[in-house]
Amino acid sequence: MPNTTKIDLDHIDCKLLDALSADARTSLRQLGELVGLSAPAVRDRIRRLEDEGVIESFTIRLNHHRLGYALEAFVRIEPLPGRLKEIERALQGMPEITHCAVVTGEDCFIARIMLRDIDDLSRLLDPLHDKARTRSSIVKSVPVPARNAPYR
């Protein structure tokens, strides 16, 4: 179970998180100028935020369209009785699934899938049809892109 103890952040922590969320490659010197601290003091704050589990990782965001993925879909997956673990393993083995959550309700999983074309959807889901019911929705637009939860 994840640690849900809330960490108190001051205004400097929040400014650092804002800047790092916008560009995780911002230098310690630039961050220090932004918040009025030295680069070593910024490094210590970032390490503390990492140690406390506020910052989990530094990563990159890829442009899926530039990599040839023209479509994105969300698929709701309801495993047939006794097939839950089998479906979970199958989903974990599909690199086109960029996010998958276990959810409440009739569906057990909701997966985000990147597709090069519409035929990819059948290629990926057809092997599941003897093990699960699936319902797919193609993404038309993204009015709220992926973002972090509020921390203020």
From TrEMBL:
- Please give the InterPro entries that the UniProt record associates with this protein: AsnC-type_HTH_dom (IPR000485), Dimeric_a/b-barrel (IPR011008), Tscrpt_reg_AsnC-like (IPR019888), Tscrpt_reg_AsnC/Lrp_C (IPR019887), Tscrpt_reg_HTH_AsnC-type_CS (IPR019885), WH-like_DNA-bd_sf (IPR036388), WH_DNA-bd_sf (IPR036390)
Q: Could you tell me the keywords of this UniProt record?
A: DNA-binding, Transcription, Transcription regulation
Annotated PROSITE patterns: HTH_ASNC_1, HTH_ASNC_2
Q: Where is the HTH asnC-type domain?
A: 9-70
Among Pfam families, the record links this protein to: AsnC_trans_reg, HTH_AsnC-type
Q: Which domain of life is it from?
A: Bacteria
What name has this protein been given in UniProt?
Answer: Lrp/AsnC family transcriptional regulator
Native species: Castellaniella daejeonensis
